[in-house]
Amino acid sequence: MAFDTKKNKDKDLLEAVGRIFEQTKKNFNIVFWNGETINYTEEPEFVLKFNDKSTFKKILANPKTMTFAEAFMDGTFDIEGNIIEALTLKDQFENIEISNKDKVTLLLKGTSFPSINLHTKEKDKENISHHYDISNDFYRLFLGSSMTYSCAYYKSQDDDLTKAQENKVDHICKKLRLKPGEKLLDVGCGWGLMITWAAKHYGVEAHGVTISEEQYKYVCQKIKDENLEGKCFVELKDYRDIEGEGIYDKIVSIGMFEHVGIKNLPIYFGKMYELLKEDGLFLNHGITHSKNSKVGKDESEFIEKYIFPGGELHTISGGISIMEDENYEICDVECLREHYYKTLVEWVRNLEANKGKAIEFTSDKTYRAWLLYMTGCAINFRAGLISIYQVLLSKSPKKPGFNIPLTRDYMYK
């Protein structure tokens, strides 16, 4: 470690901090508010910049995700370089040991170093608006031309983001065995790629519902632009308000599962069962958390406060148990965890490349919050703390028989 320092009252403090960080992977450097640096390597993957002494002390006093996140959002703490690699430091801190000498130093410098159903229709609409109605222009900066805010599907390592998102909706269409003339419901339809793709390429009558005002306006215009009136339509409506029984041949839900709330999942799956025709198919595409490990409480609080209020993750086993309780047959389960990691890495790179426009469309604080959010999600997918599954369900038939082919070949033709 090369520690460039001048004679000043902060020398002991910074050296103590240097010894603490030295226990981590030495692929980064540190720059402090007074211009001093800790240089672990000549070619750092990233640089941690503490721009304010009071913020630095606050972080030392409470070295948690929320403390770092809020300092990053207001610019008093910064990361230059590979932000995905930088955020893996949070896992390394759990194994750090602090000597008695350094504990005393930190204490004398004025800080301590401790060991490292709200889902009503009204509340859900408020939460969705907070998350999705920021700005369509903002989302386009990192989602790209597909405007698809869910896990892509990479048939090849060479697929770009747009191709991978088209792969995803087509993969779902094949799993659902869509046929011309069938009625398809996309519950939580986002910016409309699924319904427009299914209408154009599979000849279905596609119905989308969303409770996001911005998404609704976007999809209405998209349907006009692609001359799909009469084949596609979208409604600004809560899933609990969709009327009818046995209306749809097929139903799809992509990224809606996380918004429903665990207590409301029986209502959600029950409603889809009611809307589905006999022998109909329903594909649920949603994020889950690992049964034996969850995203940390501090990270969850950050997401709830700044990004995704009302979001709740269940385990895949817990979700499937509810599906079975609602009389579905579980036809197929596919894990796409690596695909979502790759998707998020592309979103992070796109957002970083469009930093100026992102700040123009929203604010510097929003840009930083979303950069942290998506980077953290990428790391958690890579670590296996969270995952994503496509579960293909069949409405249990009243008469004996089978609803899907003998093999999975039909999904890949």
UniProtKB/TrEMBL annotation:
Ranges for domain DUF7884: 24-87
Gene3D superfamilies named in the record: Vaccinia Virus protein VP39
Enzyme Commission code: 2.1.1.79, 2.1.1.-
A Pfam match: CMAS
Residues forming the catalytic site: C377
UniProt keyword terms in alphabetical order: Lipid metabolism, Methyltransferase, S-adenosyl-L-methionine, Transferase
GO MF annotation list: cyclopropane-fatty-acyl-phospholipid synthase activity
One of the protein's GO biological processes: lipid biosynthetic process
Keyword Transferase listed: yes
Protein family per UniProt: Belongs to the CFA/CMAS family.
Protein name: Cyclopropane-fatty-acyl-phospholipid synthase
Protein source organism: Clostridium pasteurianum DSM 525 = ATCC 6013
